[in-house]
């Protein structure tokens, strides 16, 4: 996994075999994809390189596309556990925790995967880095209702997401694709008419097993966090909670005294549906009121 | 417990022994309290009757007050489990679930109670019907720091709450004390500019063991629930969550389509500190924003 | 104008000529309308009586309808000034101030009315009690673009509004039509977490000649005004301003001290488009923020 | 007035007479102020230069300070009209429009100025560039109630503001004082969940003679205006209105159709009290609701 980055210019300058080798693993067990794009060089943008690679796949007859899909591991399946997948795939599945799933959730996933494979004759593919576990299960259930044609298309669309992310991990240069989302917040104190400084903010991902904390920060003099709460990665499609410790903030400022204030830990539960989007979720609060919205 | 209600007029007309018998159990193992108020009759208001009874207690020397306190059971203690308490006390403690507490929470309560008794020489008393478990533990911890004088006063103040509620269960007539709180909500749809009809609203109490559902309702054409979410009882001091199913509402109206909307189950977490107050907690929402406040 | 009210039961019981006389003036110079509904008696509801009267008009051939329209005075025109209109019509036009219009606005109205009459061959009719001057001029300009058929229909629809209001002034009984709107407000102080008591609220109608004050009130302990700001009449279609004296309120409470606060007279400008609707326009405010919405 | 800027380094390097000449007019008819600071050179910051100059004034006995105050023109008075003031003073008074005041407002100002002069023996001084006409009249009325000592202090504080602004117009270098405020806005469309692009925003100053338009802009793709509405000058203390053309915006997007929408021109009236502050006044709106606050 400790590959060094390669520049787009270097990729353009490699001999054909070198180009194919440099992109090894971007498309799962499919060096023919890179080979098919060799003569489209030079590429002016990384987005153009990715489009050319996908075009090689999309131009194949459906039968070959299905064979290609069948070279992909089953999400959370035996190959992943046994290591018979690309390093990239192993890392991506580990990120979402699907390899280590246990109990009911693992059984559900295994059953749904088996049902999908039985129905379509190829595995369910999804870009795990853009999803949380609940959204993967929801997608799996929903896509089960589709036709073969729709699912070949859906799987290729997911492969487009997967390989775009892999390319960004591998190649640098002009025209990088937009693959990263961002989650930020801002706390306004409208009791005092100024940014709320010193508010502890926690971010949780809501899963079947309860909320899991992803980040914690304290607001600065501008009422913002010094860093976005999430950045430099796709925002996983799913449900989140921002918890703002407003009771502690207003108590520290002497505004409230009650052991049990009306607002203590203000919880904003929201969904992410655009992994590459910017979600700005501000809080405008007094000890007795608050509002929030999808801002910009 | 199947006492029939008695009117204030009837109480005023009873002979002395009858008056004392009629109020049996209002003050724990203390018929002398009612006996001390016999000659203050007739009472024009139930609030006046209660004040007169409390005055009998408050006029006693501290030593006798402490003896009176010692006639009260330990919250969640052995007497409660063994039934050696008044029927009223048993019922009140069961309501909060303290008798059936198990594991860590029961052990913590027992230890704190024992510490309190050891320090002050009388048991910790609290009006359980005005509290949730977390607020009882918080009170117990906080009051442990006080002086004996403060705790005699705090215990008598709690007995005032306890007996006021018991009186209201027993006597009816002019001048009833205000012992009941109310929790209501209202959902406004500012995407469409009208009350949100058909929104499922759930109310949870937040405890150490996670949220426990207390009520569920669906908003009517006015965006309100036909009945208050809580009423006809004190609102227990504690933390609550209102969950508004806005995603389902806006989806049903064709406003949103995404499987993962920005706002789905909108959660408003708030604290109750005035058991006899009116908490109106409205939601003003679009698919992309909401605000809430303590209204009236 | 000092007619006494008549009940629907009495109307039903009158002889035919008496019925026609009793409704004299409801339809402008058109006793044949009441005469045409004589045999539809008895009416169970005032709404039914009104529907029957309108049906008599709507069943006439267009030529007769146009003759009927021509019996109506020109809004703000010479007949109105000379008194050659029904007492009802005179009163209605005076309410909106169109008779006493002077200068540019009167000239504009006269020119538009003349243009309308020249184009369609019958006068522009509008239910003046449901409109402000700016909305009358806007309607006049907009309707000028229509066909004769559309304008016969629009004029009859306005006559339906006019006569419904006249009926309500004349007849009482079961099934009264809904002709009155209501404008109310509510001020919440989310700095203190309670209704804002003692806030001076002013209501203005915005016209070409600047805002004209319609009502003033002070909020009570519930943060509401004792009476609705407008009621017992249609709300005139138009633009309004509510001015909330929040600076004075927060200064009186010791919350702010500056001679020039951030929020002093909070102005909420809004439009009314449903004369028979309920407009509830609350203000949720701190010294540094406010929100408003069409509530219910 | 067409002076070229001088750098702080150049000022430090001038001979004494050159230094005094370079600062001519910063302090009204008082070259002795600059002369008194000659030997404090070199200055490391423009703020330090200004502080040194003010210190020269503040160290004088009150009698000499009063003589200095008497060298200042009366605001809107005869000298200003006749040109017997420094070019700086003439320009500043013209900016606020006080020289060209006519009718009632001019008479009121003249009477108040005369009353002030009669009471204190020196003219009322105020930094006109930090004020609107209403705030000048309010200050004049309010300060009339003070003692001589307070008014010497208040006048010197105003001279500190005046001369700070004059220095910034004259000298550039390290450590510039903060003399400019900023007014910005931001429009969020929570009906669609995105920044509101293409909203026309107008800014008015509210004076006795009605609102006067100061700026107009249209929001960009971020919902902001490309430039702040006010910048590069002190924000004049006073009352303002922001008018957001939300009706046109929502109509253009097909969200509303009514000729008379509930919200058309949304008016936010607010006060400025900190001329050097940043006022961010956002609007979060749907066709049926909006909120605003002092943001950051």
Can you give a write-up of this model?
- 4 copies of one chain form a homotetramer.
- Chain A is of the alpha/beta class and about 300 residues long.
- Chain A contains 11 helices and 13 strands.
- The first copy, chain A, has a 4-stranded mixed β-sheet, with no helix packed on it. In chain A, strands 7-6-9-10 form a 4-stranded antiparallel β-sheet.
- The longest helix of chain A has 23 residues, at about 150-170.
- Chain A starts with 5 loop residues before the first strand and ends with a strand.
- The mean pLDDT of chain A is about 90.
- The interface of C and D includes residues 135, 238, 268, 269 and 292 of C.
Short characterization:
4 copies of one chain form a homotetramer. Chain A has 296 residues and is of the alpha/beta class. Chain A has helices at residues 8-13, 16-22, 31-37, 46-58, 62-70, 78-82, 87-96, 103-120, 133-143, 148-170, 246-252, and strands at residues 6-7, 171-172, 181-184, 187-189, 194-195, 200-207, 210-218, 230-233, 238-245, 265-272, 278-280, 283-286, 289-293.
User: Between the first and last Cα atoms of chain A, what is the distance in angstroms?
Assistant: 36 Å
Structural class of chain A: alpha/beta
- Compute the CA-based radius of gyration of chain A: 23 Å
Low-confidence stretches of chain A: none
Question: What share of the residues of chain A does DSSP label as strand, in percent?
Answer: 15-25%
Count the helices of chain A. How many?
11
Q: How would you describe the oligomerization state of the chains in this entry? A: homotetramer
The strand order across the widest sheet of chain A is: 5-4-12-13
Which range best describes the helical content of chain A: under 10%, 10-25%, 25-40%, 40-55%, 55-70% or over 70%?
25-40%
Q: Note the overall shape of chain A.
A: globular
What's the helix-strand series of chain A?
EHHHHHHHHHHEEEEEEEEHEEEE
Number of strands of chain A: 13
The average pLDDT of chain A is: 92
Largest interface: C-D, 32 and 31 residues
Largest sheet of chain A: 4 strands, mixed
